[in-house]
Amino acid sequence: MSQSNLKRSIDLVVLSDIHLGTRGCHAKELLKYMKSIDPQKVILNGDIVDIWQFKKSYFPKAHMQVIKQIANWATKGVKVYYVTGNHDEMLRKFVGFEMGSLKIVNKVVLKLNGKKAWFFHGDVFDVTMQHSKWLAKLGANGYDLLILINRLVNHISMKLGKGKISLSKRIKNSVKGAVKFINDFETVAADIAISNNYDFVVCGHIHQPEMRLIKNEEGEVLYLNSGDWIENLTALEFNNKTWSIYKYDDAHYTDDHFQITPDQEYNNKELFAKLVAEFKLMELTKS
Fold first, then answer.
1. CATH architecture of 9-122+200-286
2. What secondary structure letter does DSSP report for 221?
3. What does pTM read for this prediction?
4. In terms of DSSP H, where are the helices of the chain?
5. pLDDT of residue 139
6. Distance CA 124, CA 129 (A)
Protein backbone atom coordinates (compact mmCIF):
# COMPACT_ATOMS: atom_id res chain seq x y z
CA MET A 1 0.00 0.00 0.00
CA SER A 2 1.35 3.44 -0.94
CA GLN A 3 1.54 6.31 1.52
CA SER A 4 -2.06 7.41 1.29
CA ASN A 5 -5.06 7.96 3.50
CA LEU A 6 -7.25 5.87 1.20
CA LYS A 7 -8.57 2.83 3.04
CA ARG A 8 -8.39 -0.65 1.57
CA SER A 9 -11.75 -2.37 1.40
CA ILE A 10 -11.58 -5.91 2.85
CA ASP A 11 -14.35 -8.50 3.10
CA LEU A 12 -13.00 -10.01 6.33
CA VAL A 13 -9.99 -9.41 8.60
CA VAL A 14 -8.77 -11.69 11.41
CA LEU A 15 -6.70 -10.30 14.29
CA SER A 16 -5.49 -12.30 17.27
CA ASP A 17 -3.01 -12.28 20.14
CA ILE A 18 -2.76 -8.51 20.42
CA HIS A 19 -2.21 -8.65 24.20
CA LEU A 20 -3.30 -5.12 24.99
CA GLY A 21 -2.03 -4.10 28.40
CA THR A 22 1.40 -5.69 28.01
CA ARG A 23 4.70 -4.04 27.11
CA GLY A 24 5.23 -6.38 24.19
CA CYS A 25 2.11 -5.21 22.36
CA HIS A 26 2.72 -3.17 19.20
CA ALA A 27 -0.45 -1.11 19.56
CA LYS A 28 0.74 1.87 17.52
CA GLU A 29 1.61 -0.31 14.55
CA LEU A 30 -1.68 -2.19 14.85
CA LEU A 31 -3.64 1.05 14.99
CA LYS A 32 -2.00 2.27 11.78
CA TYR A 33 -3.08 -0.94 10.08
CA MET A 34 -6.61 -0.76 11.50
CA LYS A 35 -7.04 2.81 10.31
CA SER A 36 -5.85 1.87 6.84
CA ILE A 37 -8.58 -0.71 6.16
CA ASP A 38 -12.35 -0.73 5.72
CA PRO A 39 -13.50 -4.26 6.65
CA GLN A 40 -17.01 -5.65 6.31
CA LYS A 41 -16.44 -8.25 9.05
CA VAL A 42 -13.82 -8.53 11.81
CA ILE A 43 -12.83 -11.63 13.77
CA LEU A 44 -10.93 -10.84 16.98
CA ASN A 45 -9.57 -14.33 17.52
CA GLY A 46 -8.60 -14.32 21.19
CA ASP A 47 -6.06 -12.71 23.54
CA ILE A 48 -7.03 -9.20 22.50
CA VAL A 49 -6.91 -7.68 26.00
CA ASP A 50 -4.40 -9.53 28.18
CA ILE A 51 -6.49 -9.79 31.34
CA TRP A 52 -3.94 -12.18 32.88
CA GLN A 53 -1.40 -9.35 33.06
CA PHE A 54 -3.78 -6.39 33.31
CA LYS A 55 -2.48 -3.74 35.75
CA LYS A 56 -3.60 -0.28 36.78
CA SER A 57 -0.10 1.03 36.17
CA TYR A 58 0.23 0.05 32.51
CA PHE A 59 -2.35 0.65 29.80
CA PRO A 60 -0.99 3.26 27.35
CA LYS A 61 -3.22 5.59 25.33
CA ALA A 62 -2.38 3.73 22.13
CA HIS A 63 -3.83 0.55 23.63
CA MET A 64 -7.08 2.36 24.42
CA GLN A 65 -7.15 3.72 20.88
CA VAL A 66 -7.16 0.16 19.55
CA ILE A 67 -10.23 -0.57 21.69
CA LYS A 68 -11.86 2.63 20.44
CA GLN A 69 -11.16 1.67 16.83
CA ILE A 70 -12.88 -1.69 17.42
CA ALA A 71 -15.81 0.18 18.98
CA ASN A 72 -15.91 2.54 16.01
CA TRP A 73 -16.17 -0.40 13.62
CA ALA A 74 -19.03 -1.87 15.64
CA THR A 75 -20.79 1.51 15.83
CA LYS A 76 -20.62 1.85 12.06
CA GLY A 77 -22.27 -1.55 11.58
CA VAL A 78 -19.16 -3.62 10.91
CA LYS A 79 -19.87 -7.12 12.26
CA VAL A 80 -17.27 -7.78 14.96
CA TYR A 81 -16.90 -11.21 16.59
CA TYR A 82 -14.81 -11.22 19.76
CA VAL A 83 -13.64 -14.83 20.11
CA THR A 84 -12.43 -15.61 23.62
CA GLY A 85 -8.90 -16.82 24.28
CA ASN A 86 -6.96 -17.92 27.35
CA HIS A 87 -5.57 -14.50 28.26
CA ASP A 88 -9.06 -12.97 28.07
CA GLU A 89 -10.86 -16.09 29.29
CA MET A 90 -12.91 -14.15 31.86
CA LEU A 91 -15.00 -13.02 28.89
CA ARG A 92 -16.17 -16.60 28.39
CA LYS A 93 -18.87 -16.07 31.00
CA PHE A 94 -20.25 -13.34 28.72
CA VAL A 95 -20.50 -15.55 25.63
CA GLY A 96 -23.59 -14.56 23.68
CA PHE A 97 -23.41 -10.94 24.86
CA GLU A 98 -24.09 -8.47 22.04
CA MET A 99 -23.53 -4.74 21.93
CA GLY A 100 -24.46 -3.20 18.61
CA SER A 101 -22.79 -5.31 15.96
CA LEU A 102 -20.18 -6.72 18.38
CA LYS A 103 -20.72 -10.21 19.80
CA ILE A 104 -18.67 -12.26 22.29
CA VAL A 105 -18.32 -15.91 21.25
CA ASN A 106 -16.16 -18.98 21.85
CA LYS A 107 -16.06 -19.83 18.16
CA VAL A 108 -17.50 -18.70 14.85
CA VAL A 109 -18.62 -20.59 11.75
CA LEU A 110 -19.15 -18.45 8.64
CA LYS A 111 -20.01 -19.14 5.03
CA LEU A 112 -17.43 -17.48 2.78
CA ASN A 113 -18.38 -17.68 -0.87
CA GLY A 114 -20.18 -20.97 -0.31
CA LYS A 115 -17.41 -22.50 1.81
CA LYS A 116 -17.49 -23.08 5.57
CA ALA A 117 -14.88 -21.39 7.76
CA TRP A 118 -14.37 -22.31 11.43
CA PHE A 119 -12.72 -19.70 13.66
CA PHE A 120 -11.47 -20.37 17.21
CA HIS A 121 -8.53 -19.31 19.36
CA GLY A 122 -7.04 -22.73 20.10
CA ASP A 123 -5.85 -22.50 23.71
CA VAL A 124 -7.90 -25.55 24.69
CA PHE A 125 -5.42 -27.74 22.84
CA ASP A 126 -2.76 -26.89 25.43
CA VAL A 127 -4.34 -29.29 27.91
CA THR A 128 -6.20 -31.68 25.63
CA MET A 129 -3.83 -32.06 22.67
CA GLN A 130 -3.61 -35.83 22.97
CA HIS A 131 -7.36 -36.30 23.47
CA SER A 132 -8.87 -33.76 21.08
CA LYS A 133 -9.45 -35.88 17.99
CA TRP A 134 -12.24 -37.97 19.46
CA LEU A 135 -14.16 -34.74 20.10
CA ALA A 136 -14.22 -34.11 16.35
CA LYS A 137 -17.27 -36.32 16.02
CA LEU A 138 -19.16 -34.15 18.48
CA GLY A 139 -19.29 -31.33 15.96
CA ALA A 140 -19.84 -27.76 17.15
CA ASN A 141 -20.39 -28.81 20.77
CA GLY A 142 -16.99 -30.48 20.87
CA TYR A 143 -15.09 -27.22 21.12
CA ASP A 144 -17.32 -25.97 23.93
CA LEU A 145 -16.62 -29.20 25.81
CA LEU A 146 -12.90 -28.71 25.31
CA ILE A 147 -13.23 -25.24 26.85
CA LEU A 148 -14.94 -26.67 29.92
CA ILE A 149 -12.28 -29.37 30.28
CA ASN A 150 -9.53 -26.80 29.89
CA ARG A 151 -11.03 -24.52 32.54
CA LEU A 152 -11.39 -27.43 34.97
CA VAL A 153 -7.76 -28.50 34.48
CA ASN A 154 -6.53 -24.93 34.93
CA HIS A 155 -8.66 -24.54 38.06
CA ILE A 156 -7.13 -27.68 39.57
CA SER A 157 -3.65 -26.56 38.51
CA MET A 158 -4.17 -23.19 40.21
CA LYS A 159 -5.39 -24.89 43.40
CA LEU A 160 -2.21 -26.98 43.41
CA GLY A 161 -0.13 -23.82 43.08
CA LYS A 162 1.19 -24.71 39.64
CA GLY A 163 -0.49 -21.87 37.75
CA LYS A 164 -2.43 -22.03 34.52
CA ILE A 165 -1.32 -24.18 31.61
CA SER A 166 0.07 -21.88 28.94
CA LEU A 167 1.80 -22.20 25.61
CA SER A 168 4.67 -19.97 26.74
CA LYS A 169 5.86 -22.63 29.19
CA ARG A 170 6.03 -25.17 26.38
CA ILE A 171 7.89 -22.75 24.12
CA LYS A 172 10.51 -22.07 26.80
CA ASN A 173 11.29 -25.77 27.24
CA SER A 174 13.12 -26.14 23.95
CA VAL A 175 12.99 -25.13 20.32
CA LYS A 176 12.44 -28.76 19.37
CA GLY A 177 9.53 -29.00 21.79
CA ALA A 178 8.02 -25.79 20.43
CA VAL A 179 8.20 -27.02 16.85
CA LYS A 180 6.55 -30.30 17.81
CA PHE A 181 3.80 -28.50 19.71
CA ILE A 182 3.05 -26.22 16.75
CA ASN A 183 2.98 -29.16 14.35
CA ASP A 184 0.68 -31.12 16.67
CA PHE A 185 -1.55 -28.08 17.14
CA GLU A 186 -1.97 -27.57 13.39
CA THR A 187 -2.58 -31.27 12.79
CA VAL A 188 -5.24 -31.58 15.50
CA ALA A 189 -7.01 -28.41 14.34
CA ALA A 190 -7.00 -29.65 10.75
CA ASP A 191 -8.18 -33.17 11.66
CA ILE A 192 -11.15 -31.83 13.63
CA ALA A 193 -12.03 -29.36 10.87
CA ILE A 194 -11.90 -32.09 8.20
CA SER A 195 -14.08 -34.40 10.33
CA ASN A 196 -16.68 -31.64 10.56
CA ASN A 197 -16.54 -30.81 6.84
CA TYR A 198 -15.09 -27.32 7.18
CA ASP A 199 -13.21 -25.86 4.23
CA PHE A 200 -11.15 -23.42 6.33
CA VAL A 201 -9.94 -23.61 9.94
CA VAL A 202 -8.67 -20.32 11.36
CA CYS A 203 -6.77 -20.18 14.66
CA GLY A 204 -4.62 -17.93 16.80
CA HIS A 205 -2.84 -18.69 20.09
CA ILE A 206 0.50 -20.09 18.91
CA HIS A 207 1.73 -16.75 17.47
CA GLN A 208 2.74 -18.49 14.26
CA PRO A 209 1.25 -16.97 11.07
CA GLU A 210 0.49 -19.72 8.58
CA MET A 211 -1.59 -20.62 5.56
CA ARG A 212 -1.31 -24.12 4.15
CA LEU A 213 -3.40 -27.01 2.89
CA ILE A 214 -3.42 -29.98 5.28
CA LYS A 215 -4.61 -33.41 4.15
CA ASN A 216 -5.44 -36.66 5.92
CA GLU A 217 -7.20 -39.89 4.93
CA GLU A 218 -10.62 -38.22 5.28
CA GLY A 219 -10.00 -35.13 3.16
CA GLU A 220 -8.31 -31.74 3.27
CA VAL A 221 -8.69 -28.29 4.80
CA LEU A 222 -6.97 -24.93 4.44
CA TYR A 223 -5.35 -24.22 7.82
CA LEU A 224 -4.79 -20.56 8.67
CA ASN A 225 -3.28 -18.78 11.65
CA SER A 226 -3.36 -15.02 12.11
CA GLY A 227 -0.10 -14.80 14.06
CA ASP A 228 0.21 -12.00 16.62
CA TRP A 229 1.01 -8.35 17.34
CA ILE A 230 3.90 -9.07 19.71
CA GLU A 231 6.56 -10.38 17.34
CA ASN A 232 5.16 -11.08 13.89
CA LEU A 233 2.70 -8.15 13.51
CA THR A 234 0.42 -10.10 11.19
CA ALA A 235 -3.25 -10.48 10.31
CA LEU A 236 -5.34 -12.60 7.97
CA GLU A 237 -7.35 -11.00 5.20
CA PHE A 238 -10.09 -12.58 3.10
CA ASN A 239 -10.96 -10.54 0.04
CA ASN A 240 -12.21 -11.36 -3.45
CA LYS A 241 -12.55 -15.05 -2.48
CA THR A 242 -8.88 -15.25 -1.53
CA TRP A 243 -7.01 -15.57 1.77
CA SER A 244 -3.72 -13.76 2.41
CA ILE A 245 -1.41 -13.09 5.36
CA TYR A 246 -0.83 -9.41 6.00
CA LYS A 247 2.59 -8.47 7.38
CA TYR A 248 3.04 -5.00 8.87
CA ASP A 249 5.60 -2.74 7.22
CA ASP A 250 6.09 0.73 8.71
CA ALA A 251 7.22 2.10 5.34
CA HIS A 252 3.66 1.77 4.06
CA TYR A 253 2.26 4.30 6.50
CA THR A 254 2.42 7.98 7.35
CA ASP A 255 2.10 9.63 10.75
CA ASP A 256 -1.51 10.51 9.84
CA HIS A 257 -2.43 6.90 10.50
CA PHE A 258 -1.63 7.32 14.21
CA GLN A 259 -2.73 10.31 16.24
CA ILE A 260 -3.66 10.80 19.88
CA THR A 261 -6.78 12.96 19.95
CA PRO A 262 -7.89 14.98 23.02
CA ASP A 263 -10.80 12.68 23.90
CA GLN A 264 -8.30 9.85 24.30
CA GLU A 265 -6.09 11.65 26.85
CA TYR A 266 -6.97 9.42 29.80
CA ASN A 267 -4.57 8.78 32.62
CA ASN A 268 -4.04 5.17 33.61
CA LYS A 269 -6.28 5.35 36.66
CA GLU A 270 -9.21 6.75 34.64
CA LEU A 271 -8.56 4.23 31.89
CA PHE A 272 -8.59 1.29 34.26
CA ALA A 273 -11.81 2.56 35.86
CA LYS A 274 -13.47 2.83 32.44
CA LEU A 275 -12.57 -0.74 31.50
CA VAL A 276 -13.71 -2.13 34.85
CA ALA A 277 -16.99 -0.22 34.50
CA GLU A 278 -17.52 -1.74 31.04
CA PHE A 279 -16.98 -5.28 32.35
CA LYS A 280 -19.38 -4.65 35.25
CA LEU A 281 -22.00 -3.27 32.85
CA MET A 282 -21.60 -6.36 30.67
CA GLU A 283 -22.07 -8.63 33.68
CA LEU A 284 -25.22 -6.80 34.78
CA THR A 285 -26.62 -6.89 31.25
CA LYS A 286 -25.84 -10.61 30.91
CA SER A 287 -27.54 -11.45 34.20
1. 4-Layer Sandwich (3.60)
2. E
3. 0.78
4. 27-35, 61-75, 125-128, 140-159, 167-173, 175-195, 268-286
5. 46
6. 8
